[in-house]
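Course assignment 3, question 2. Fill in each field.
Student: A.L.
Task: Predict the tertiary structure for the chain below.
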Amino acid sequence: MDEKEFPSCAEIHIAASHLRAISVPITPILTHTSLNNLTGENIYLKCENFQRTGSFKSRGALNAILNAIKIDPNLKGFVTYSSGNHGIAVAYAASLVQRPCVVVIADDTPKYKIDAIKQFGAELVTCQSTVSTRIETCEQISKERDYLIVSTSDHPDVIAGNKIFSFIIKN
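Answer field:
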């Protein structure tokens, strides 16, 4: 990813406004006396595990999908490759905008991750556990169904949404 592709502060603020508009939970920031004593520092824990999907990844997926729908309200659906929290987050975000979603997962994906993705109504496609195979499968599905690919970590809207919590902590 080129430096110019990283989201600006303004883009991160726009992402925050998108997520406020749909009432993404504001998760607490906690401290823990034992950790503070152990490290001699003030340790703060941002409890993103309280998000509906169990991780901060929902912020990035939601921002990417909301931006995509804003640009093209007629999008047919979404596809991603992830055997983890990003797959869960994209399935959740697609369910909120009532669009179909396919999550390409590795054949060794743990059952609890599969169950978490399924709970949001996504279709699962299993392939070999290599990253290149998952990307190729994702690209094939995108082409066949005309679905937008929501990549795991190199999409500027995903990054902007995931970086929102740094502004929350700062403020």
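Instructor remarks: Strands lie at 29-31, 44-46, 78-81, 101-106, 123-127, 148-149. The CA atoms of residues 63 and 161 lie 5 Å apart.
Grade: pending
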